[in-house]
Amino acid sequence: MQRLDTPWGKRLLALSIFSLILGGWFAYTRHREASALLPAGDGREGACALWFVGSSSIKRWDSLEHDMAPWIAHNRGINDATFEEILPRFGNIAPDTPRPEALILYAGENDIARGRPVRQIVHDLAQFLETRSTLLGDVPVLVLSAKPSPGRWHLFPQQKLLNAAMVRLLPHMSDAHYVDITSALLKDGKLGDNYRADHVHMNEAGYRIWSEIVSAKLPEFLPEKTVRRCAG
Predict the structure, then answer these.
(1) E strands of the chain, at which residues?
(2) Would you say residue 66 has pLDDT above 90?
(3) Helix (H), strand (E) at residue 177
(4) Distance between CA 10 and CA 8 in Å, rounded?
(5) Burial of 202 (0-12, 13-18, 19+ CB in 10 A)
(6) How far, in Å, CA of 1 to CA of 17, rounded?
(7) Which of 140, 153, 109 is nearest to 219 (CA)?
(8) Angle of the 204-221 helix axis to the 224-231 helix axis, nearest 10
(9) Is residue 2 scored above 60 in pLDDT?
(10) In 10 A of CB 57, how many CB atoms?
(11) H/E segment holding residue 50
């Protein structure tokens, strides 16, 4: 047995203490991630609520509540998130949480940027939709297509593969619908002036395109009486 009053013993003691600290930090991190919640959003409470869930393209939609009026839009986006960050937070929704009328999801773009295969992203999307069914029942989900952008134009081929895979998947999932935002951002195969200075996220004009598309699609997937009550 190594004596602790020798140089090697002191090193072993220091290593043991460091290992305990590191193990505690990892345990705390896992607990924090497992118990994390979706952002609450700034939308008003009440009927006619829409949850916008996803990555920073949702989080940075500063005009969301105004753009989607008279619907009550809740911005529940997470900056720079992949499905790996979104799934556990979405799974921590409290059972007594008031259900939205619909959920709009934008996710997968960052997964592609980090090199995740399309099949894994689609698997995560299916898991998200199954969690929705468990926690929120038949709340419709509008899944937005992966958007092209100047800063990630080199990833557009993979984004198109993801979009095609989502088109194939969603008809087999309950109350899940593909919404194409890609086509409206392309004019003759080129991108318009719809992006912020970072060349990735939408500017006001770009988000106006998104809101017009989502608003037009909601009546296709929601009961007529809900649309009349919420959107006049």
Answers:
(1) 49-54, 72-77, 102-106, 141-144, 176-179, 186-187, 190-191
(2) yes
(3) strand 176-179
(4) 5
(5) buried
(6) 18
(7) 140
(8) 140
(9) no
(10) 26
(11) strand 49-54
Residues in the chain: 232
Residue whose token pair is 């899944």: 143
User: Which DSSP letter does residue 134 get?
Assistant: H
Lookup result for tokens 């969603």: 170
Q: What is the pLDDT of residues 185-208, one digit of tens each?
A: 999 889 999 999 999 999 999 999
Report in angstroms the alpha-carbon separations of 201 from 41, 66, 149, 156, 187. 19, 18, 8, 15, 18
Q: Are the beta carbons of 39 and 77 closer than 8 angstroms?
A: yes
Residue carrying the six token digits 């959920």: 103
Please report where in the chains the tokens 């609450």 appear, as a residue.
Answer: 40
Residue type, 45: E
Dihedral (C-alpha) 85, 44, 217, 183: value to the nearest 10 degrees? -50
Residue written as token pair 């118990």: 35
Residue with tokens 């997470």: 78
